[in-house]
Predict the 3D structure of the following.
Amino acid sequence: MSKRDFYEALGVERTSEDREIKKAYKRLAMKFHPDRNREDPQAEEKFKEVKEAYEILTDPQKRAAYDKYGHAGVDPSMGAGAGGFGGGGADFGDIFGDVFGDIFGGGGRRQQRASRGADLRYNMELSLEEAVRGVSKEIKVPTLVGCDECHGSGARAGSQPQTCPTCHGTGQVQMRQGFFAVTQPCPHCRGKGKIIKDPCRKCHGEGRFQKTKTLNVKIPAGVDTGDRIRLAGEGEAGEAGAPAGDLYVQVHVKEHPIFQRDGNNLYCEVPISFTSAALGGEVEVPTLEGRVVLKIPPETQTGRMFRMRGKGVRSLRSGAEGDLLCKAVVETPVNLSDAQKDLLRQFEESLNGGEIRLHKPKAQGFFEGVKRFFDDLTS
């Protein structure tokens, strides 16, 4: 079966320019694309036909051979050249690059872009006081920085990187097998699209080199474990002068010997003496701003919570101040002398001699509950 004339297949004149051929190809490729014509078996054949016509007529050498010898001039079975490793011609990648690339501002094969530098992470430990009040810290970060001699190009001063002859600057080559093609990074330039024949002596052609940077980081007041502080542009330098990545400072607040933090509130345990718990009194309580006096009411039991408003942590986001919650812990006397032990025994006897419910309401309720429990088991 004889092939149609390529110009006729695309609906263009023999004198048409590449722009007109590409425009006609885009229209027909979208019209006959197999994905858009699943129920029409002839659409794929028409698509292959316009694709082949586009391949030939957009390649200057193949178009000249076709104009002179017709189909015989571009038929591989008759000795004509065919696409191969890194060769010209369109494929599915070209379809979506040429057709949709022009629509969205691209067009043709896109050159490999230099990649942005990698982001870095720095773990910073802070004391509770530093996290609550805010602090400035000096840190040292090993990273890749842009070369100041070649300005990221990798080429020695006075020279320029050259376009890779294998991929022609695209950074990619194609392995084609019939109707399908596989794109992979160019092995000659390693996907950069450029080769450096006279590399910079400072960075050895990389455009960047290893350096330890010293940075001053301002930690805002109110940060907590898990918060991240972003330092834009302080990450690794990008390739070939591309923008640098960011540095993320990860905050971890160390445990405090006195306070425990829960959001904007602080918790602490306050030991009180046996007599202060029974008779009431005052005790000094530490806060992050200094000491304050806490009044202990009479008959205070272990576990009672006292709230001191505004003595917690100021919120980083809302600015609201948390509270300090103090848990009373009655301390049992230790290392008693014989005289002291006798006094406590006398005191205990005085409590048991009277109405126990008045002096030990919790103990009385507990023992009554235990009695009922065993009575229920034996009944």
Observations:
- Confidence is low (pLDDT under 50) at residues 79-112.
- The chain has four domains: 6-103, 112-147+208-254, 260-330, 338-378.
